[in-house]
Amino acid sequence: MSDIENVAENVLENATDSVADNTAENDNNNYNMISRYKKREQAFILSFESLFTDCVDVDELADNAVDGNDEHMSDYAIMCAKGILENSQQIDELISANLKKGWKLNRISKVSLAVMRLAIFEMLFVEDVPVSVSINEAVEIAKKYSVPDDSSFVNGVLGAVAKSINE
User: 78 with 46: CB under 8 angstroms?
Assistant: First the structure.
């Protein structure tokens, strides 16, 4: 099995586990009690899915996730996913500008790209989330959904992006 197939299988496996966790929460009508981490994870999943489809309608992606998994998609996840799509050019320019020499955006795994887009969106547009929290949560999501080295890569790029934003 190739690395790409392993990563895709890992994302699907972890997404299924996440859906099951959220379904249990939803059965208790705790929609508003979902942790910010779970909401970020949902936003990551929507952003990741959008990389593989021509569908740019986040509401449709969220509806499909709900229909297929009985999962309630949080407003925060939908807001982030929409914001990522609307600001993807600006976000991708920040990623590209902070990659090491020789790296291009198209070399980055889809998991890492989706995770970094989410963190950078939060850094730029979500005022109540500290930059350090966005970076830490992105690293944790990368650890869960990607190969081991990706979390260090994500951390390094996001650290550089954070510095460039503050300059």
Answer: yes
CATH superfamily of 3-166: NusB-like (1.10.940.10)
Residue 81 CB-density burial (10 A; 0-12 exposed, 13-18 middle, 19+ buried): buried
Name the H helices within 28-109. 36-50, 58-69, 75-86, 88-97
What pTM was estimated for this model as a whole?
Answer: 0.78
Give the DSSP letter of residue 28: T
List CB contacts of 53: < 8 A, sequence separation 6 or more. 61
Backbone φ/ψ region at 104: left (φ over 0), alpha (ψ -120 to 50), beta: beta
Amino acid (1-letter code) at residue 50:
S
Domain boundaries, the chain: 3-166
pLDDT at 23 over 50: no
